[in-house]
């Protein structure tokens, strides 16, 4: 029996004694069927349950032929349908096909009878879903089956939510799984015809229902129909989409907001469907769709309909643009104006939808529209479509009507920048965005620097987009940085906020950085040095940050530049080298620029669409030609040798944390280098390796020679993919030597094994696996623990190269791999498991094992045997006879991994033998062995078939129960979790009957009670709160074997503890679309212009601003420094906290109480200790009140020296006015002098 079916049936069996008839009837019927199986010695397989249920159903219908079937709770027919719905999905399709006539004759006539009864009707639907999915195309044409599907279609409009949802899910699942080789289900045509007919009736106003509530029922049916249509839309034939579109367009006329919103949303999804069928002409009707949408614009205040309408209009324009760009351009102005008015709405969702839709409309700008706008801009006119759009956008920044919409307007301007990236000429000519939008960008920058402008983040996003589209050269020409001293003296506003925007790809050539920013950074660096010398640290830090921001933007100039040959001069290259050597803070920026410089030209020169698609959008939209990129690569190859020399030096001095980035740059430059350059670099590195690998490391101090060796190996790993076959072979031999693999440096060993593994994987070296394994075996004595993971990876790669006739080599690897599963390092364990599995796959592939060549083989077993998984399991199981518990435990763990991996390949007989053998180790006295055995049992319970495990229950249950009360090593929790899984798979009776001792039975009863308690708690939570609001369980991650073996100990661990439930905070109500006008008495407001600088958000008063508390600080009049009064600070802590004291008293006093998570009150116990504490608090409070009444607020007495040694219960050694004895004092405290504050130096000295 499949595990899923057994799990489902195990949940039904316990309900034979239920007081609810609808639960008791299926359980009773199931027990009757299984009793019949036991009498007839029939296996419990899905086919047997299916046949028995059909026979029982036939008998029930025959007996009820005269009076009709009874469908009340507790009757047999609902129970039969319920069990059929559970069993049928697990029945083989061939069985369903052979019994199709019987199924139809028995169940199809029941549909009219079942309609009034929802529970059995849902069971019938689940049963038919499994039947439909099991049939082939010819069988789907059976008349009775098609009639049943017709009945199910009409149930998709049923007023009952559960029935309607189940019918819709059935149709969706059937259409989504067509019988092979069909790409579309045969029933799709019928569903399309029914949808067309029903939609037509609703759209034309033909009442589908008659009676008093016909209008309401018709409207509800329309809503249900649209809910049904959404998931099946992509499964319908294309020929029905045009008529569906027409019907959906007519639904908003009915006046229902929800219906209109659903229709618009479905139309948006319909237009987004990629359609290649020639019979589909939905895109030919896009003009009609656009006209209908534009003519049905909802009001700005309609928060339900407006977002869906805007989304539909944007998608329709985008789709129409793909079909006919020129015709779409004629609708751009009208669509833009219709959407633009939504930006005046008070609802943020409407404005956001309008913003996105306007971005889609902006994508419909054609070269004709753009050229017309550019041409008229030269004359100072704005009469074209794009000219009017820009004029309208510019006015919005000053309009009071758009005061709350400034961020949305700025986002629209960002989309305009992207959509006007058009150039009417080669790269270097101005873009349309530069000619049309530059004044608007300047205006945004002016708003950005105004003190009262609140939307600086939105303005920065727009300016950043302008920087990417226009480039720094154009931006800084109109918006100078004004960072020089001359600019500051002239009173010009600095624009340092533009510097972080340089860090992005843009079209400005590299020569601009060399000519503009390099001199600027040199001046800034001089200013920084001057400030440092004169002690102005804050100013020096400012200049340092500005320099960092400028160099961080260098990489944006390096994406396929047109002037690379003239910009990358020897002088500039020398400057970059000096920065790499002398400025560690600027090193990441320079390295990134060098990598981008090479990789971008390499990608563009390759012409590979897949690689080009990974470039940034700005680069792809305005890229250089493939020929220009190839010319740049030729130029860069001439500098490979010099740059590699620099990068190798930087790599050696960067440290472990910085070598990764340097290595990426080296890899990029090596990728474009010629073979001669790579060989030359390899020869230099191999000579350096040989010079340092044999040098004895110093006994004390830093191990410089080992660091050089490790660094050299790191660089060789980077060069490895580009080495020639000759160099790769020589490197393999060099790394296979004992000098590397037995080095005293762990890092050298690890890198040696990594290089060997990569060379084996690349396939450049002709490898004799037998010889390599023999040489590796000789180096095992000097193996460092840190290198075990890499050694396991190398062995895994070598296993795949072992010929099928030399599989006798595997037994020599098995012990090392098995012991590797017990390594402390998780990575080493995973590598060992991978090696064990790799050997298993190698043996499963077939071959010959020559036993006479296996070391230590007995003379009786000499000969050849066929390689298979059984033979391999026998090899691994030999470790069970190991001399140490560690080896036995590791072998059990290895066998568990193999059982998990090859559970379907291992014969059932061997599974049974392995389970019986490992079960013996549960009685071992060694906990390490028992822990591994418990892990295997847990794995077997999870993965192995129930029928295979059932005969072993008599032995496994007592063996597990013997550890059920052992808390050490979490054995009790492990055993509990195993039994929870066993109870779900085998049922309560099968497990409980094998528990003989009373203590063991109590343990099982406790598990049962915990499970029931957890179920009740879950039901209470489901009743109290919505399921969507509860936190979902954390998904298991990582390796599946690790999850099973080392997963959560018990899923009922939390059921005993009520715990504190997480309280969800209520959302605070507030004004929506919050924006207001700031009133400033000193600056009268002009309501006709400049409104953007007077807008304030609704929560601006609650927003904490930097320095807002400074006005409350006491400052020195002469110096302006803040003064902190120590007495005030201490006195501030003495304020009376009435609420806090009342809360503490309620929690801790004898009269207090606490409230549990379920609202129950629990009073505190009236203990002697609590009464004593209350008396002390009363006395202290009385004294405090008396003293406060006489003297006012009294300062808290300082803690005396040695207070930490005061006894908690007795009086202690600390006495009033002194300490006795003084020997209890720490020397550091005794040495302190009162009234004197001492400062510590850097070295910790006074």
From TrEMBL:
Keyword field contains Endoplasmic reticulum: no
Keyword tRNA-binding: no
Keyword vocabulary terms for this entry: Nucleus
GO cellular component labels: nucleus
Cellular compartments annotated: Nucleus
Ranges for domain RRP12 HEAT: 344-653
Acidic residues bias: start-end ranges: 1050-1060, 1125-1138
Region (Disordered) location: 1-23, 1013-1204
Domain RRP12 N-terminal HEAT: 17-272
Pfam families: HEAT_RRP12_N, RRP12_HEAT
Listed SUPFAM superfamilies: ARM repeat
Annotated family: Belongs to the RRP12 family.
Name of the protein in question: Ribosomal RNA-processing protein 12
Native source species: Cristinia sonorae
Lineage of origin: Eukaryota, Fungi, Dikarya, Basidiomycota, Agaricomycotina
